[in-house]
Amino acid sequence: MIALEVVRHAPADLYLDPENPRLAGEPFSVDDQEGILRWLWRNKSVNELVDSILANGFWDHEELFATEERDRWVVVEGNRRLAAVKILSDPGLREQLGIHLAEKPSEDVLESIRRLPVIHATRRELWSFVGFKHVNGPQVWDSIAKAEYVFRVRRDFGLSLAEIASRIGDRHETVARLYRGYVVLRQAQNEFEFDTTDTQHRRFPFSHLWTALGYVSIRDYLGVDPTALERENPVPPDRLRRLQHLMAWLFGSQSQNIEARVRRQNPDLRHLARALEVRKGVDLLESGSSLSVALDASLGDAHLFRTALTRAETSAREAMRFVSTGFTGEEDLVETGDSLLRQAKSLKALMTPGEP
After folding, report:
1. What pLDDT sits at residue 305?
2. Are residues 248 and 199 in contact, defined by beta-carbon separation less than 8 angstroms?
């Protein structure tokens, strides 16, 4: 249980957390405070909090949570607010970072941020509170930040995924799915330097990966099962080449000019899983064929024939609807109709070879 005693700290005595999941795995240390602050400013909308504090001052009911590490108070919860306060309270820092405010903070605002309300606690005491708030609660992180947090909690505190899910109120297996995706992502990063910034998507769609791992055919392709995905480095060494293929299909690569096969989860991810169900689909994908070609191969000729014939009939019915109002005697359309008739007769003869 966290002791809710509030202690006042000057902003300069508080440190931004290099383990903040919002940093998306950037390799900061606690000594690189300027680098962390610059990254948060550029990537996490700290300007919105600056504007709010400029207008209203710092709200005392929004305490920061800090833990003591190496004689420093590191803020575990409230890093964006601390970043905003540091920017507002230090003109030299603003100049150094090239930040220009629309207006200078008033004396009342400066007084409100002179000493901030802080609750002291260890990371172990704080993890479920932070997890509920940002993984399953009202102020959610993006999915990769959530996954990194779950991974750290499990690694650092030795808790099972079921315990973590229970403590933060997750009833939809979100914790397990995030963790499974994250350990596979880390393995790709460690084994062949997969780069989340080198994809063909505007932002790295981490959900493609953890959703993909929910399909049996994709797990089979990697040689993993749900139990294996609950440990680090789950993909066997002899399947790492397949992992490399999967990451390319899901995300592509700008530097290598590799086109992502999955542009949208629906229906592309489902189609990828279907294509991987058969050897021919696997071979076509691995040789560089498009997802549509691999999917057709996996569906089989009988399915494709039925689909094509049904589609042709539907198109013919659609043309009948508009012939009286849309056709005015064009010769090319008459020729198209003649060609369609010949193909229909040939098709019927092939389907019923015994008939005259």
Report:
1. 67
2. no
Task: Report which of 276, 155, 265, 267 is spatially closest to residue 222, judged by C-alpha positions.
Answer: 276
Average pLDDT of the residues of the chain: 90
Residue 200 CA to residue 260 CA, distance in Å, equals: 7
Is the CB of residue 108 less than 8 Å from the CB of residue 70?
A: no
Distances in whole angstroms, Cα of residue 242 to Cα of each of 218, 221, 229: 10, 7, 16
Least confident of 11-20, 77-86, 163-172: 163-172
* Residue-level pLDDT at 326: 86
Kindly give the interhelix angle for 123-134 and 143-157, rounded to the nearest 10 degrees: 150
Tens-digit pLDDT profile for residues 104-149? 999 999 999 999 999 999 998 888 888 777 776 656 688 888 898 8
